[in-house]
Design a protein that fits this description.
Elements: H1 2-22, H2 24-37, H3 44-57, H4 60-88, H5 92-104, H6 116-131, E1 135-137, H7 144-155, H8 162-176, H9 185-193, H10 199-215, E2 218-222, E3 230-234, H11 239-249, H12 253-277, H13 282-308, H14 312-325, H15 334-344, H16 348-358, H17 367-379, H18 387-393, H19 397-412, H20 416-420, E4 432-434, H21 438-454, H22 458-463, H23 485-492, H24 509-530, H25 532-560, H26 565-571
Antiparallel strand pairs: 1-4, 2-3
Length: 572
C-alpha cells in the first residue's frame, strides 16, 4: 500500500511538472480570467484608482530616488556577478537558478535517484579526465642558476611556481636515483638532496657528496693476494652532484658547461661499468637504467650550453650523435632541441627531414612540430602572399598548403599566435609544459619568435589569420580541446602572468542584463533629476501606451460578457 501511495504521489508530481512545463500559457490566461471575474468582490477598480491617485501625488524627487536606488542595487549585483564570473567562470544567478529552481520546474529527471550510481561514475570519470591532463618536461627548459635566478635578482619576481619545481624534483628522483643508492654514500646523500625544498640545502648536499667522494676516492688494494705491493684505485665521482651544481649554483652558462663536462667524465665512467654488469641481476639493471638517464641528460644539457654560447653547429652535432646513440629515449624530446638549432642555422632542408621523421600520426604532437611545419609551408609563399590578391584570384596550391598548415597548428595550440604576433608579452618559460596549453605556447614562442621574424612575410601571413582560433570549424584534426588546460596552466605559470584561456568564456546573460539595467536606471535617474516635468509627461504617455492594449481587451470582454455574470455564478 505504501508503495502504491508513493507511486500515485509521484504520478501527481509528474503531471504537475508537465503542466508547468508545457501548459504555462493556459495557466496564465486562466489566472487572468479569474482575476477579471473576481474584480468586483476584490474591488480591483477601486484599488487601482487609489494607486493611481497615490502615484499622481508623488513628486519627481521620489522617482529620482527610486531610479537612483535601482541603479545602485543593479550596479552592486553587476560587480558581484563579474567578480564571481572571473573567479569561478560561471554566473552566480544562473548557478542558483540551475541548482534550486530547475528541480522545482522539472529540470531533473524523475529517475535521478535510481541513476545516482551512474551519475557518481560520470563525475568520477570527469575528475579522472582532469587528473590525466598530462604535464610534460619542457625540452628547452632554462638553467635555474644561470637564467631563472638572474631574472629573480633583476626583477624580484619568482619565475617558477612551487608546483613546477615540485614536478622537477619528482623527475630528478625518477631519472637520477635507484634502489641501490644506499650502497654508495655519495648517491645516498644525493637521493636526499633531490627531495630538499630549500635550494641552499640541495647545493650544500651536492658539495658534501663530492667531498665524501673525494675522501673515499683513494683506496689502497693489494695487487697480489698476501703481497706488500699496493695500488691506489680511484673511485668514480658523483655525476649527479655535478648536475645539481651546474643547474642551480652556476651563475653563468660557461660555469654550468664546465660543471657538466666534469659530470660527463664521471657519468660516462659509471655508464660503462654498469653496462657490463646490467645482465647480472635486476639491481644492476636498475643501476644501468639510472646511469643511462644521467648520461643522456648531461649530453643534452651540454648541447644546450653550446647553443646558448653561440656554438650552434657544435650543438647540432652533439644532438645528432645523442639521438643516434640512444634512439629509444624519446622522453627527453631531443628532436625539439635539434629543430630549434637547425632553424637558427637556417638549415630548412634539415628541418624538413627531421619533421618527416617525427611529424607522424603515431607520435604525440607538440607546438614545435606543428608550428615549425607551418613555418616551412609559409616560407614558400609568405614573401609573395597578399590577402587582397588571394581573395581575387583564389589560393594557389602552395598557398593552400600554407593555410592548411596554419589551421592545423592553431587548432593544436590556439595560444601561440598571440605571442608570435606580440599581442601578449612573453615571460620565462616554465620547466614543465602542458601540451596545447598556454605554458607550451610560451615555451615555443620564447625560442621560436626570432625564427618567425627571420622569414620575411611569415608573421604577416599568420596575422591575416588573427581571428583564429574562433573559426576552427575547418579542422578537427586533433582530439577536442581539453577543458583542464586552464587549471593546469595556472599551477605551472607564475601569478603575475595572465593565463591565456581558450575557448573564450562568453559573458553570462545575467551579467549583460544587470549591466543594461544599471545603465538604463542610472540614465533615468539623471534625466528625472534634470528634467522632472518632461520626464513626468513622458512616463504618463509611456504608461498609457503600455496599458492601451489591455484596456482595449477589457472593454471588448465587458461588452461581450454580461455584467451580472458574477451574481449568476454565486447563485449557481
Amino acid at each position: 500500500m505504501a508503495e502504491a501511495g508513493a507511486g500515485f504521489v509521484e504520478q501527481l508530481k509528474a503531471c504537475a511538472v508537465w503542466s508547468w512545463t508545457y501548459l504555462w500559457a493556459v495557466w496564465f490566461f486562466l489566472v487572468l480570467f479569474l482575476v477579471y471575474v473576481l474584480r468586483v468582490p476584490l474591488r480591483i477598480h477601486d484599488n487601482w484608482s487609489a494607486v493611481s491617485m497615490f502615484l499622481n501625488t508623488l513628486t519627481p524627487k521620489f522617482y529620482v530616488a527610486l531610479t537612483g536606488t535601482s541603479s545602485l542595487i543593479s550596479g552592486l549585483i553587476l560587480i558581484f556577478e563579474w567578480w564571481y564570473f572571473r573567479k569561478y567562470g560561471t554566473s552566480f544567478i544562473e548557478q542558483v537558478s540551475v541548482s534550486h529552481l530547475r528541480p522545482l520546474l522539472g529540470g531533473v529527471d524523475n529517475n535521478s535517484s535510481n541513476n545516482s550510481n551512474s551519475s557518481n561514475g560520470d563525475s568520477d570519470s570527469n575528475r579522472q579526465s582532469v587528473s590525466e591532463c598530462k604535464v610534460w618536461r619542457n625540452p628547452l627548459n632554462l638553467f635555474r642558476g644561470a637564467e631563472y635566478n638572474r631574472y629573480t635578482w633583476v626583477t624580484g619576481r619568482e619565475p617558477l611556481t612551487y608546483y613546477d619545481m615540485n614536478l622537477s624534483a619528482q623527475d630528478h628522483q625518477t631519472f637520477f636515483t635507484c634502489d641501490s643508492d644506499h650502497l654508495r654514500p655519495a648517491d645516498a646523500i644525493m637521493q636526499k638532496a633531490w627531495r630538499e625544498r630549500n635550494p641552499q640545502a640541495r647545493i650544500s648536499a651536492a658539495h658534501e657528496a663530492l667531498e665524501i667522494n673525494e675522501i673515499r676516492s683513494r683506496v689502497e688494494v693489494p695487487l697480489i693476494a698476501s703481497s706488500t705491493i699496493w695500488e691506489i684505485k680511484l673511485l668514480p665521482k658523483c655525476a649527479t652532484a655535478y648536475i645539481l651544481l651546474a643547474e642551480e649554483e652556476a651563475t653563468t652558462i660557461a660555469e654550468a658547461e664546465k660543471l657538466f663536462k666534469q659530470a660527463l667524465k664521471a657519468g660516462d665512467g659509471c655508464y660503462r661499468r654498469s653496462q657490463q654488469l646490467q645482465h647480472h641481476g635486476s639491481q644492476y639493471e636498475a643501476q644501468h637504467r639510472r646511469d643511462t638517464n644521467v648520461l643522456v641528460y648531461i649530453k643534452r644539457r651540454l648541447a644546450m650550453c653550446a647553443r646558448r654560447l653561440g656554438r650552434t653547429r657544435e650543438a647540432v652535432k652533439m644532438m645528432r650523435d645523442l639521438m643516434k646513440e640512444f634512439p629509444l629515449l624519446s622522453m627527453f624530446n631531443i628532436h625539439e632541441n635539434l629543430l630549434e638549432a637547425l632553424l637558427e642555422l637556417q638549415a630548412y632542408a634539415d628541418v624538413q627531414a627531421v619533421l618527416a621523421k617525427y611529424d607522424d600520426i603515431s607520435l604525440p604532437k607538440s607546438a614545435t612540430i606543428c608550428y615549425t611545419a607551418a613555418l616551412l609551408k609559409a616560407r614558400a609563399v609568405s614573401d609573395k602572399f597578399s590577402p587582397e590578391a588571394a581573395s581575387r584570384r583564389g589560393l594557389s596550391t602552395a598557398e593552400m598548403n600554407a593555410v592548411e598548415a596554419i589551421h592545423r597548428a592553431v587548432e593544436f595550440n590556439p595560444h601561440v599566435p598571440k605571442y608570435l604576433l606580440e599581442m601578449k608579452s612573453l615571460i620565462l618559460p616554465p620547466e614543465h609544459i602542458l601540451k596545447r596549453g598556454d605554458s607550451e605556447a610560451i615555451a615555443y614562442a620564447f625560442f621560436h619568435l626570432a625564427h618567425w621574424k627571420r622569414v620575411e612575410g611569415a608573421l604577416n601571413l599568420l596575422h591575416s589569420f588573427r581571428m583564429i582560433p574562433y573559426p576552427l570549424e575547418k579542422g578537427h584534426l586533433f582530439y577536442p580541446y581539453p577543458i583542464c588546460t586552464e587549471t593546469a596552466d595556472r599551477e605551472l605559470l607564475p601569478s603575475f602572468h595572465e593565463v591565456s584561456v581558450y575557448p573564450k568564456k562568453e559573458l553570462p546573460f545575467f551579467i549583460l542584463f544587470t549591466a543594461g539595467l544599471c545603465s538604463f536606471t542610472a540614465m533615468l535617474a539623471l534625466l528625472t533629476h534634470q528634467f522632472p516635468e518632461l520626464m513626468g509627461v513622458f512616463a504618463k504617455a509611456f504608461l498609457s501606451t503600455l496599458f492601451a492594449p489591455l484596456n482595449f481587451v477589457m472593454e471588448k470582454v465587458e461588452s461581450i460578457l454580461p455584467s451580472s455574470l458574477w451574481h449568476q455564478l454565486t447563485r449557481i
